[in-house]
Design brief:
The protein is an alpha+beta fold and 96 residues long. It is 22% helix and 33% strand. It has two helices and six strands; from the N terminus they run E-H-E-E-E-H-E-E.
């Protein structure tokens, strides 16, 4: 959809906390304004393929990247339900 509107999104498959940190640094260096993360999770947990982050860990990694009017779009399967310790895949897309 983004490509159809002239945007050039970047897709990254993120499996670990270290990979998420690396991609967020890449996003911060870019001129992209929107970050969409699609992960399994709930109100206190983000589950990547090989790692899990609590809300505080996630905020420490992602929060600083949202300066200067950048936006985060977060898609999680159970954001409004009690904790679930299910692991699965995650992906990230950045766009201008």
């Amino acid at each position: 959809m983004l490509r159809m509107t002239g945007h050039e999104p970047i897709y990254r498959y993120v499996r670990t906390k270290a990979e998420l940190s690396h991609f967020i640094k890449e996003f911060r260096r870019s001129r992209y304004r929107w970050l969409h993360l699609s992960v399994h999770g709930n109100h206190d947990l983000v589950a990547l393929t090989l790692d899990q982050l609590n809300a505080e860990q996630f905020a420490v990694i992602v929060g600083p990247a949202l300066a200067d009017g950048r936006r985060l779009f977060l898609s999680t399967c159970k954001a409004a339900t009690p904790s679930s310790r299910r692991r699965s895949s995650g992906g990230a897309v950045a766009s201008r």
